[in-house]
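Forwarding these from the shared drive since the link keeps breaking.
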Amino acid sequence: MSPVSHATSEHHGEDRWSLRFEVHLPHPDDVLWTALTTPDGLRGWLAAADVLERRLGGAVTLRCLNNGSTYRGHVTAWDVERVVEYTVAEHERIRFHLERVGTDSTVIRFLNERGGSDAERLDCLAGWHAHFELLESALAGHPADWAAWTDTRWAELRSAYAA
């Protein structure tokens, strides 16, 4: 079974959404913290962190290596080895909350609060799901090969979320 659960989404007024994932990974929280909060860690599954000031209020610039999109913002929560939140253009609030399970397993409770149409909601659900699968692979020693990336898996996931 995949450690990436099917996400949930909640509508909050006109074109406002909360997207939630719960991801169970067989890795200690310090390993996950590195993957979520360092340029090397983020590059393996999410984006290049062209700017990453690792502190509350710090600047962050994430550049997608599959399509070149760039998102600038700030670190809006920082509780070392527990919570990191980036608030960036277009994706808005992106929050990762780590919960240790025993000594060698961690749950990521993920929240993305954002605006957008229902089509954009489905795009984001599929996108985050695909990225969490890439995180699982990166933690297993196989970081994303962005030069070989295609949207095939994303399209499958989007169809599944639309159904």
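-- next protein --
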Amino acid sequence: MTSQAFVEKLNEQLGHEFGAHQQYVAIAAFYDAQTMPRMAALFYDQASEERDHAMMMVQYLLDAGETPRIPALPAPVGEFGDVVEPVRAALEQEKVTEQVNELTRIARADGDFASEQFMQWFIREQVEEVATMGDLLAVVTRAKDDVDRIEDWVAREDTGESADPTAPRIAGA
């Protein structure tokens, strides 16, 4: 039986994931308008990843016999003062480690081992996302006056990662 406290908190987390999706689309559009196609592509990909995270949570709730509740979201920030500001915002967006840990704590405290196991993938993913955005912020800050250097770095770092076979199922996929 899924912990009801976990279900409530996971439904709340859906809002954070969908909010991150929208914020990353806004950041990608900003970089597109700045004629920075690699940065735009990076953030369009990040937006898709955040949507997928939300849809993994939707699928988990459905599999657990629960009804996902999709919350209304505030509008994302779409205007930025320079090329550094969106990455700084993205890094802050990625610092949801406490939210992920809280979900895991609730599952563990309630003896909901399936939900605790589900959250393990998100814990690992969070470490990677914060590290990636931290590195990107360092590069963008250093090269803020040379967007070609930023674009070149993003191109070099694009590893074309394949799908993670350990990732939870995505609803609708």
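The mean pLDDT is 94. Residues 53 and 146 are 33 Å apart (CA to CA).

- D.
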